[in-house]
Amino acid sequence: MLALAREFSPVVEQTSANTVVFPISALRTLIGSPYQIAAEICRLGQERKLDASLAIASYPDTAILLARHFSGVTLVSAGEEHLKLAPIPLQSLFAYDTTLDPALLEILHRWGLKTCEDLAGLPERGVAERLGQPGVYLRKLACGAIDRPLRVAAPATNYEERVELEHALDLLEPLLFLLGRTLGELCSRLRSQSRAARLLEARLDLENCTLCANSYRAQRLPNRLCANSYRAQRLPNRLCANPYCCELEFPVPLDQAQTILKLLQLHLERHPPEAPVIAFRLRVEPAEPRRIQGGMFLPPTPPADKLQVTLARIAAMVGRENTGTPMLLNTYRPDAFQMTGLHTDPRLPKEQPAGRETVRLAMRLFRPALEARIRLAGTAPKAVTAAGIKGTVLRCAGPWKTSGEWWASTAWAREEWDVALDDGGLYRIYCELPARAWYVHGVYD
Amino acid sequence: MANTSALLRYRDFAKTASALGWERPEAKFPALPVPGLNELLGQGLCRGAIAEVTGRRSSGRTSIALHILAQATAHGEICAVIDLYNNFHPASAQAAGVELDRIVWVGCRGNAEHAMRATDLLLHAGGFGVVLLDLCDAPARVLNRIPLSYWYRFRRTVEHTPAILLICADSAQAKSCSSNSIELKPKVFHWSGKAPFLLLRGMEATALLQRACGILNRAPQAPNALCARAAGASSVQVMV
């Protein structure tokens, strides 16, 4: 039925599973009078063996009520809607609009009202005084006087594109050109729906190339995906069984193709496919774009899209594990943290808490901890020797015994000391138990 | 002869910027106030400039750097830490008042080239309040390989922006490119209790302002510069 309606108008409301409404005003110049339009719709409906009722009225709600109540074809001229609706029982109105309170129907029945004609005969002011806004709406519905725009059912937008290539691509640059064009189309679709991409899923179908199984050659050639593509084209079975798949999740939804392409490029440069690309599929997952109200008194923050590209560049250089925002873990384990994404939402300056003027002593950690040789005097350290550190202990504080997570692989048990050496440094050293191995954990600075 | 007299006349005019009391134009952005260092910095750290905190190990340079980061994040700014040897201690930073969720931390695993390139990328991205470049404990052979052009490039990048590039190192690196330069010298460590029941309470360091918004410590105070302040020394208490 929806397909039949779409043949007459692109603006179609699917009210329910078996009801569709569409405007016919534009068809008058194309087909003719409402009678001719109705005849044409019936003809096409019979061709498709549809068993349905048709009603043509000035307003959509009136047409729906008439089509549901009268079988066959019903045509109503403007101004005569209340006459056609007159015999329809009031229960039909409540069945049509389920948001109406059923108690209202009971009241109308107690008043002796059975049909739309009865309700339409009541004065509007009196109905408003006794039943309020729902009563006025119901009376207008019974008169066929409610006009509203159609709730057009938009077809679901496809955020997926697949491109098959005639020749396999073994260089990154031409592949990026095609990826950029496809991403541009996807991003324009996103923008037309006021959406942005939260996630990009890329699947590259690789050519069946046994010579390209060793990826070390591809890694050595930064812009070349495969050095042996010309030989691969000669192989009969072109598609490789294992496609190259990657998912890029963006901390902030993006709708700029250039930015997404740059992030994809950085990923492909870091993890190149092992064979030439014969086809690719891109899919973006839409999400609500980030909308932030800027403020005159808010400090500036990095632009989200530019920051993502910058962090991706840095991550490609120093490694993803070395880039991010540290978040302390809920444990007493020393140096327990994990890297997370950065929140760039503008934030108002906080009130200065008490003690903010005090400079707190900070520590610099050695990662990994430096193995140390300790000379003891009793239980206290007397001299410390480690890589780049050598000195006699002038003063020391400790031992501070800590342990925890004995139930997990991250268990620790140690005795910590704060030591001031004669080289001028103030260090934290610890003795790992039960091995009694000494380490320099960090330096106070 | 005429050339010699012209040369002599030129010599009279050819005074250095510091001797002339070089006056910077009025600052475009308000300085970042640093409450614990009011005696030293006056109104605070100049924005759109390079600042340096130098000193040897255990001189309190990291504490001062984290304190400045804490002030910036408290103002709602996003900051970055480029850490040459991955020495950044998040727990210490949080204890110093740094809001960790406003920090980007880049660990370079000892690669100075990566550190400089990461700094360059972050400064060009824009929007950061303070970018801390931590070069502490880097040997001289590593630091000497850093081209001087990097510092000029960084100075040009940050000027006319509200960003501060804060360099923390053993010795001054940016030289004339820096606008604020604080040198720290450890004075004494504070302990409480008596041996063997000692407890580390903090340390005291002497902070020497080598350069304040382009004013060298031997230059007269510039009357019109907003952030300019006569350089001097101050004692900084760093508490556990």
**Helix-strand string of chain B:** HHEHEHEHEHHEEEEE
Count, helices of chain A: 14
Our count of helices of chain B gives 7
Q: Reading side by side through the largest sheet of chain A, how are the strands ordered?
A: 12-13-14-15-16-17
Compute the number of structural domains of chain A: 3
The quaternary state of the protein chains shown equals heterodimer
Approximately how much helix is present in the residues of chain A? 25-40%
Helix content of chain B: 25-40%
Distance between the termini of chain A: 77 Å
Mean pLDDT of chain A: 86
Detailed description of the structure:
Chain A is α+β, with helices and mostly antiparallel strands. In chain A, 31% of the residues lie in helices and 29% in strands. Chain A is built from 14 helices and 17 strands. In chain A, the strands form five sheets. Chain A has a six-stranded antiparallel β-barrel with strand order 12-13-14-15-16-17. A four-stranded antiparallel beta sheet of chain A has the order 5-8-6-7, with helices on one face. A two-stranded antiparallel ribbon of chain A has the order 1-2. In chain A, helix 10 runs antiparallel to helix 13 and helix 13 (257-270) runs parallel beside helix 14. The longest helix of chain A is centred in the middle third of the chain and has 21 residues, at 172-192. The model of chain B is unreliable at 215-230 (pLDDT under 50). With 240 residues, chain B is an alpha/beta fold. Chain B has helices spanning 2-13, 38-41, 61-74, 90-95, 112-125, 140-143, 149-158, and strands at 49-55, 78-83, 103-107, 128-134, 164-169, 178-192, 199-212, 215-216, 233-239. In chain B, strands 1, 2, 3, 4, 5, 6, 7, 8 and 9 form a nine-stranded mixed beta sheet that branches. The N and C termini of chain B lie far apart (68 Å). Chain B has seven helices and nine strands. Classes of the chains: A alpha+beta (445), B alpha/beta (240). At the A-B interface, helix 14, strand 9, strand 10, strand 11 and strand 12 of A face helix 3, helix 4, strand 3, helix 5 and strand 6 of B. Strand 11 (359-360) of chain A pairs parallel with strand 9 of chain B.
